[in-house]
User: Which sequence fits this backbone?
């Protein structure tokens, strides 16, 4: 197939650890296949062959937005891309750097670190997920993402098919793996409220879930807090833990439970109704990026393959 | 022709977001800056008030490529603060996990990020049609490193298995043996990287003498962890004194702070380790070192690439030795509980790209002070200096064609980790 018939794809990175793009680079066995299946127009971490002014079928974006420079760039990416996919916790929820959203202490913290020095690079502000600035079509969660979920999303999106990830929590996977319940053993585990898809990686190693996939769609945070309080965890520790990876999702959905008064940009956001029903992990495929001549018949085989890996 | 300005907006094939600006005035070079566009994340301030184990989970997120170096440094610092001594088997598994990261990061840099420049390609993917064997060899070595990180830490990136006081779970004997034999079989692939770089002409237009620093291992062998810091000026420091070594300042063109030692730039890297400890390398890696080392290694940052390639060979030789020792100890130790809930601790480990410091202060089981000094923040000044010398020489000799790529190559040879570099920060209290 000639390159111009392949879907054009770009990989972009903002503030974060680049762990999501690195997860893709770590796909040694599949890396060459990925580069063969799509026409990669930009992947700065892997290649200096970068074309940043062309229309794209899919833009994959990792990292959160922390400067006005980033904000302008992400808007530009949105304008020339049919689909925008948020890769990982930082792009989806703001990541650990958004753990204090709503506390309104960012300027104080910034000053503490950089002092009064004048920076000429860009105007910085508190970390926000990319959907504070643009519309996002699909969210791939995780810190970092799981490569199987990425393959699943990529193959579905280039065929013009919707992407759905598990709506069950880590707890469900943990049961399937027949692990001993860490909550019952007195550990501060976020398994009940965290989106599944990691195959309960940490509990498999006798370690409590740290919540890096973000809250699941039906997360009952109130009940989790009560449960942990009964086990004598302090409210501060519970809230800290929930907020480490929960970022903007926690503020938007559970501000009242966590005792946060949303400030600044998050204040203006969505109506409450929208908040409640905003799915954490779904794709709304509007414009389809189908290569010419490709038939789009649904393949249940692909569907069964992912979702969760056992 | 009068050159006004060379501007590389965004460096490719390096981790994070940085650029280079070179300004000229009336044909003379006026200013060189390595601009760091990475947004501030202020993770150290997020750490305050949290439990030590949460902070370990947090600080390893500073960087994905050196996630386990961050985790290792954080664990060591926390354990010093909380008076925890880990048993030998835990120590051995940590050394093994560190080998995994060194192999992963060095192979990634040598084969996929640095080599395309030398051979004239925009990426390793573009090298495939003509250099398939080299790319495949590099991918095999890197994949082994990634899998070793997964085996020891539970995930290729940000694995949570290494915890304060030990590991959640130890790998099985059969898995370990499998990795032992695989490591042995991959040594020729890693040597391939050394051979390719050895036969390439190293550019010399940027040469300038360097001051080096690295962690001194606690034994007489080569290694990456210890409580003392060696410098090429012949001095030795306790890691507690890390602030004396890494005087920092804020510069306007950068979200990263900069380090200097005695007001002079210095270098931490595989090249620094080899200049200070290369004599300790044994086995096949030791032979490669002796065959390739020359006095240019103290002036030319490009030799960092071959140093990383040789270090990868050494790590693959070290893996079987560590695994033999690991399986000789039958019982898997439990996680060691802290002896106290307050204290302060500083630790240094060698990340693939140089010495990394973590320092924490803990009161009532909560972190009240956090300080992280990354290798990239330490060597940025020297990198800028080499780019300046390089640009000056190229302009003097009228070799300005493709000058951008040549300057980028200098930056890439350092293997900078720009996400990391913005975390040169000391925070205490909120």
Assistant:
């Amino acid at each position: 197939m000639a390159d111009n018939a392949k879907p054009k794809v770009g990989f972009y990175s903002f503030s974060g650890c680049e762990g999501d793009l690195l997860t893709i680079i770590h796909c040694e066995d599949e890396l060459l296949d990925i580069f063969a299946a799509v026409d990669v127009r930009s992947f700065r971490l892997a290649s200096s062959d970068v074309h940043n002014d062309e229309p794209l079928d899919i833009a994959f974006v990792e990292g959160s937005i922390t400067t006005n420079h980033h904000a302008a760039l992400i808007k530009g990416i949105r304008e020339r891309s049919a689909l925008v996919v948020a890769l990982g916790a930082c792009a989806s929820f703001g990541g650990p750097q958004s753990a204090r959203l709503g506390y309104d202490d960012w300027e104080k913290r910034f000053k503490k670190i950089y002092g009064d020095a004048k920076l000429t690079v860009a105007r910085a502000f508190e970390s926000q997920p990319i959907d504070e600035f643009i519309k996002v079509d699909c969210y791939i969660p995780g810190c970092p993402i799981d490569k199987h979920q990425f393959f699943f999303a990529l193959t579905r999106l280039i065929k013009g098919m919707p992407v759905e990830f598990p709506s069950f929590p880590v707890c469900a996977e943990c049961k399937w793996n027949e692990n001993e319940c860490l909550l019952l053993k007195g550990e501060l585990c976020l398994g009940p409220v965290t989106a599944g898809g990691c195959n309960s990686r940490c509990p498999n190693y006798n370690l409590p879930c740290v919540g890096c996939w973000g809250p699941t769609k039906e997360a009952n945070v109130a009940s989790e807090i009560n449960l942990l309080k009964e086990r004598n965890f302090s409210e501060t520790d519970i809230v800290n833990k929930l907020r480490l990876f929960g970022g903007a999702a926690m503020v938007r959905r559970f501000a009242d439970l966590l005792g946060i008064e949303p400030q600044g940009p998050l204040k203006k956001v969505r109506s409450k109704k929208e908040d409640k029903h905003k799915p954490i992990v779904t794709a709304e495929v509007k414009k389809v990026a189908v290569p010419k001549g490709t038939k789009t018949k649904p393949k249940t085989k692909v569907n069964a393959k992912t979702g969760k890996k056992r | 022709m009068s050159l006004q300005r060379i501007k590389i907006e965004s460096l490719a094939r390096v981790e994070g977001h940085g650029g280079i600006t070179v300004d000229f005035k009336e044909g003379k070079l006026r200013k060189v800056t390595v601009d760091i566009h990475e947004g501030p994340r202020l993770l150290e301030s997020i750490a305050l008030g949290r439990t030590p184990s949460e902070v370990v989970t947090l600080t390893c997120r500073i960087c994905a490529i050196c996630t386990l170096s961050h985790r290792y440094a954080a664990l060591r610092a926390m354990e010093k603060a909380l008076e925890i001594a880990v048993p030998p088997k835990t120590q051995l598994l940590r050394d093994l996990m560190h080998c995994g990261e060194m192999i992963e990061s060095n192979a990634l840099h040598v084969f996929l990020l640095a080599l395309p420049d030398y051979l004239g390609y925009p990426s390793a993917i573009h090298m495939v049609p003509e250099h398939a064997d080299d790319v495949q060899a590099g991918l095999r070595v890197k994949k082994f490193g990634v899998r070793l990180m997964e085996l020891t830490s539970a995930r290729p990136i940000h694995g949570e298995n290494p915890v304060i006081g030990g590991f959640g779970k130890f790998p099985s004997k059969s898995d370990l043996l499998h990795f032992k034999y695989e490591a042995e079989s991959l040594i020729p692939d890693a040597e391939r990287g050394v051979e390719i770089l050895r036969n390439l002409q190293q550019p010399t237009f940027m040469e300038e003498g360097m001051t080096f620093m690295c962690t001194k291992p606690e034994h007489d062998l080569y290694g990456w962890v210890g409580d003392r810091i060696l410098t090429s000026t012949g001095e030795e420091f306790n890691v507690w004194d890390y602030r004396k070594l890494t005087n920092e300042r804020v510069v306007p063109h950068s979200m990263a702070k900069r380090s200097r030692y005695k007001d002079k730039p210095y270098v931490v890297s595989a090249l620094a380790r080899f200049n200070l400890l290369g004599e300790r390398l044994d086995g096949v890696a030791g032979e490669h070192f002796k065959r390739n080392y020359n006095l240019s290694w103290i002036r030319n940052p490009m030799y960092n690439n071959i140093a990383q390639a040789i270090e990868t060979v050494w790590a693959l030789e070290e893996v079987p030795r560590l695994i033999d020792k690991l399986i000789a100890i039958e019982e898997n130790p439990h996680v060691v509980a802290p002896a106290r809930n307050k204290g302060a601790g500083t630790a240094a480990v060698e990340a693939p790209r140089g010495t990394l410091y973590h320092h924490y202060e803990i009161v009532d089981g909560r972190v009240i002070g956090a300080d992280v000094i990354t290798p990239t923040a330490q060597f940025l000044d020297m990198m800028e200096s080499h780019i300046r010398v390089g640009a000056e020489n190229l302009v003097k000799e009228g070799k300005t064609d493709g000058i951008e790529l040549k300057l980028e190559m200098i930056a890439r040879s350092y293997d900078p980790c720009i996400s990391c570099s913005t975390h040169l920060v000391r925070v205490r209290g909120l």
